[in-house]
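Marked as duplicate of an earlier ticket. Keeping the data here for the record.
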Amino acid sequence: MTLDEFKALENTSELDRALQALAEDRKGDWDGAHDLAQAANSKDGDWVHAYLHRKEGDIGNAGYWYARAGQPRVGTEVSLESEWDEIAAALLAKQAD
């Protein structure tokens, strides 16, 4: 699945929870996205969790989740949209393997 196909997808129930969380965030449901990221109980979910806390402005908490995910902290020089795309593309590539 391409990034554009993922962005247009309406039903994400067949995807893993980390991707479902990104889809919920794209729809504007931060709380639903947060719940799904936590429920993923994986490094991928932790990466999405980090992004979500960065998005809400909780940089300290985001840093904790980036570390748990094994991902570098993302600074303000990277837009939230760019980070979302990067995470989604990486998770979609993993699913394709």
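See parent ticket for discussion. The CA atoms of residues 25 and 74 lie 18 Å apart.
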